[in-house]
Here is the input.
Amino acid sequence: RLFHDPQYSDLTIECQGRRWSAHKSIISSRCTFFAKACDGRFKEGLEGEISLPADDPHAVHAMLSFIYQCDYDDAGPDMECDAGMPPILLNVGVAVIAHKYDLPELSSLALRKFTNRAQTEWRSQKFARAVRDIY
Here is the structure.
């Protein structure tokens, strides 16, 4: 519930024009990267804003959803980009971001979701693109 509620948030996370309100105590307890960034000795902690310009905003959304809810929706409206991001590609992006920010549980979840999608989409162009993205 707190993931979509900016009340009492004390941190803003920005990625390629998208912004999320977050709670330092929640994200810092689940992710070492955010714990270090929110430390009062760093600019991000002092200013209350973390910018992730190199990351995919859909993967960031999924990561934050996971941090708050221990899950993410790989097919919901928040995951669709302007060109329409296929869920199988989102799961690849989430696995990448999970590795980058050292979230092994998220990485495992993304792999399970990717595997479930691959079982029905393995003949599709989306699957071929996902394999290219992986390698």
The chain has one domain: 2-134.
